[in-house]
């Protein structure tokens, strides 16, 4: 575990990795809607449900958690003293990493909130 | 004193609001789904009041507290918990608690189906009991208490919305599409529904009589409704002579127009013009001569050429169709 965290620390958070959690949420959201619409329109009921959907949701959550852990480690990069708002390389990294961490938390909750109705309602009406 | 009076007035008004419209209110439910909606609403309302009061207290505290009461770290922690963690947990709890209420009611092949088609500005109602022929009616829906009933909803012209507030939530009626609303009434009585999607000039005048009956009484009523109705008199001839049968069906009399509401058991309905006027001879005669005066934009043509006596004769004939 420690080795993994060390490894996460050596990765580099950028604006590209910042969009990973919300993009994962968006893909999961789109997938949920499309699957429900296509299943109901073509079969009139839920097909291969709920196992496949739960697996997809867990995968999305894993991606978001991984992005969050990496961001969390990067946000703790030691260097300049608090309050970490100067125009230095390290402060920029800490800022982007912290923003990614908050986005990961938001995306995690959003994926759970999207999946709940799909799992509980499971009806085409 | 003033504050006490105000509280009494507000509490009284809230009580009166829920009681003043017992035949068309989600707060006075006669169906299981409307009772669920009322329960959800009251619990959400109570929760919202508690949260609003908590936020107000915190704001009061924040305004009055000295400037350096919290360290930067404590402040960030407060934001994390009160702004992030607690709202998320509360919303998740509400979601988990409320989702089972939103689950559609199960429907079996032996359940009664009632097809309802919204038209400007009335309701075409067709009862489809399992294993028996369909029965046509209009502007009045009767349902048996304690049994599951499926409304198959569609529209003929524009989008309408089917809403019986005391029975269940509303559902859109869309041309070319059939939506299914499954309900169960729990209390017999006379209630009212209303079109809930703007559909034209007389949208507000597109109401619906709803009668929840004990199952045995319902079965007897449906059997009677299935039989043709007969009535005679001068009005019968006038009805045919003026071409009313081109649009209206009266079974047995051989009148088979399918454009306007089915009038077979017209006389047994409580209201006229889709829940708008009391069923009196004067109202029916007036509506025949000038339907546009009651319902602007109505598709039924006016018959001003009929004398008062002729319109009254037709009205008497229609009211005799029990």
Structural summary, described in words:
The complex is a heterodimer of chains A (125) and B (322). Chain A is elongated. Chain A has one domain (17-121). In chain A, α3 runs antiparallel to α4, α3 (20-43) runs parallel beside α5 and α4 (51-75) packs antiparallel against α5. Chain A is built from 5 helices and no strands. Chain A has helices spanning 2-10, 15-18, 20-43, 51-75, 89-121. The longest helix of chain A has 33 residues, at 89-121. Chain A starts with a helix and ends with a helix. Chain A is mainly alpha-helical and 125 residues long. Chain B has 322 residues and is an alpha+beta fold. Chain B has 2 domains: 12-65 and 104-215, Sandwich (Immunoglobulin-like); 234-319, Immunoglobulin-like. Chain B has helices at 2-19, 32-64, 72-102, 215-226, 234-241, 281-289, 291-294, 308-319, and strands at residues 112-119, 122-128, 135-138, 140-144, 148-155, 160-163, 171-173, 179-184, 189-195, 207-213, 249-250, 255-256, 271-272, 277-278. In chain B, the strands form 4 sheets. A 5-stranded mixed beta sheet of chain B has the order 3-2-1-5-8. A 5-stranded mixed beta sheet of chain B has the order 4-10-9-6-7, with helices on one face. A two-stranded antiparallel ribbon of chain B has the order 11-12. In chain B, β2 and β3 form a beta hairpin. In chain B, α5 crosses α8 and α6 (281-289) crosses α8. The mean pLDDT of chain B is 88.
Largest sheet of chain B: 5 strands, mixed
User: What structural category do the secondary elements of chain B indicate?
Assistant: alpha+beta
Low-confidence stretches of chain B: none
Using the coordinates above, name the CATH class of the largest domain in chain B. Mainly Beta
Calculate the terminal CA-CA distance of chain B, rounded to whole Å.
Answer: 59 Å
Distance between the termini of chain A: 46 Å
Helix-strand sequence of chain B: HHHEEEEEEEEEEHHEEEEHHH
> What's the average pLDDT of chain B?
88
State the helix count of chain A.
Answer: 5
What is the architecture of the largest domain in chain B at the second tier of CATH?
Answer: Sandwich
Largest beta-sheet details of chain A: none
Question: How much is the radius of gyration of chain B in Å?
Answer: 26 Å
User: Average pLDDT value of chain A?
Assistant: 84
Q: Total number of β-strand segments of chain A?
A: 0
* Total domain count of chain B: 2
**Largest protein interface, residues of each chain:** A-B, 10 and 13 residues
Strand content of chain B: 15-25%
Number of domains of chain A: 1
